[in-house]
Amino acid sequence: MLNTDQARDRAADIVSRATAAGADAADAVYAADTALDVSVRLGALEDVGRSESAELGLRVFVGKRTASVSTSDLSQDALAALVERAIAMAREAPEDEWAGLAPADRLLHGAPPQLDLDDGGEVEPAQLKAAALEAEDAARAVPGVTNSEGGGASASRSIWALATSHGFAAAYAATGYGISASLLAGEGGQMVRDYDHHGARHRNRLMSPAEIGRGAGERTVARVNPGTIKSGTMPIVFDPRVGSSMLSHLIGAISGSSIARKTSFLLDALGTRVFADGVTISDDPHRPHGLRSRPFDGEGLPVSPTEFVRDGVLETWLLDSASARQLGLEPTGHAARGIGGNPGVATSNLFMAAGHVPVATLIGDIADGIYVTEMLGGGANGVTGDYSRGAAGFRIEGGEITTPVAEFTIAGNVKDMFLALTPANDLEFRYGSNVPTLRIDGMTVAGA
Q: Which of 131-135, 287-291, 378-382 has the lowest mean pLDDT?
């Protein structure tokens, strides 16, 4: 795999070729990765997988016409053909008045910030096998576990480079490690499943395999013999592992494309209260060794910590250059690029700030409610905000989490849910998007 300087130069070279061949402007992405995965089941090695890939994507502009092409063949002949094909396609494409590169005066200048995303380590398959076995062994040792879907461990390293014809060229590397375990408990038709996993940029920041395994086993056993619940309106408390889905509904609603197309339930909400007092939702691309940290966005703009919601008030849209032009605004540094196509928008290390109450206090006055640990299917209507999802979890009775329940649906409207949401004080930065335990009163439950 190329190093970061070579990856940057590879992207810059194809851009130079494109402009020399007649493109008015161009940008290119080079992405490469290597990955190693090991899985075990019932104490025996089940699979070892290794993959390597390298791709280059080119986007060219001829006036207001644009086209994107990509290839995994990086030979000189293939790259020459790629440039020729991209320009020919662009000349036949319809005009797009919003198309174009990011504003030149907004590009990141100087060295990108160093975010400590690459630990430089190399891991042997035997080390990953040992970690996967340790995780599964710890999980199977939990009383009540009846079977295993396996343990897994992985390691990867990736490089991402971006170059544009108006002066940007940079690249960065990142490593990633993961451990997981998935278990079964109960018998026959009453069998239940659960899992645990953890990922980190640095191997020495991973939770121990034994801790992951025990967590998976305990989660699984706790769900045995779930009951049903009667339909009604009641408070719902979301475990942090599933509560982060609330953030995805917000991000979809404030993305520039949704606003420009007028397909968002928050279309007229900028500068207004959309969450309860005290709720703050932020994005931090500069978090050292963060799972989604990045030194620049998908168009070469600098990135910085942003508060999307401050004390309940919506402060900004998420805009790439195209949606910003369409709305008469400035891009916000949230563009995201794949190998092919035009940029969209994406967050980095997204999180809801911790509240002020412990979890025990958050649920302490709930006489009859549900603690949700799993959600299935469904989601929110992006235009209306109507929300409905299948769920499983535990009863809350007299302020205490009690017995498991399953096969019910929770419903409401996301706008009302946001305003009724209360965060606990137990925020942990474990995933790409993180929230504390969340309580939403007045949701509709459809059960047995």
A: 378-382
Contact 27, 15 (CB under 8 A): yes
Give yes or no for a contact between 283 and 348, defined as CB atoms under 8 angstroms apart: yes
DSSP letter, residue 6: H
Cα four-point dihedral sign 409, 410, 414, 416: positive
- Among 201, 239, 237, which residue's Cα sits nearest to residue 348? 201
pLDDT digits (tens, 9 = 90+) for 388-436: 999 999 999 999 999 999 999 999 999 999 999 999 999 999 999 999 9
Residue with tokens 């989660």: 219
HEC string of 262-318 equals: CCCCCCCCCCCECCCCCCCEEECCCCCCCCCCCCECCCCCECCCEEEEECCEECCCE
Distance (Å, whole) CA 64 – CA 29: 20
Q: Are 201 and 176 in contact (CB under 8 A)?
A: yes
Q: Please provide residue 252's backbone torsions phi and psi, each rounded to the nearest 5 degrees.
A: -60, -35
Residue 110: pLDDT over 90: no
pTM over 0.85: yes
What letter would DSSP give residue 139?
Answer: H
Alpha carbons 445 and 443: distance in angstroms, whole number: 6
As a whole-number percent, the residues of the chain with pLDDT over 90 amount to 95
Which two three-digit tokens encode residue 313?
A: 């008030």
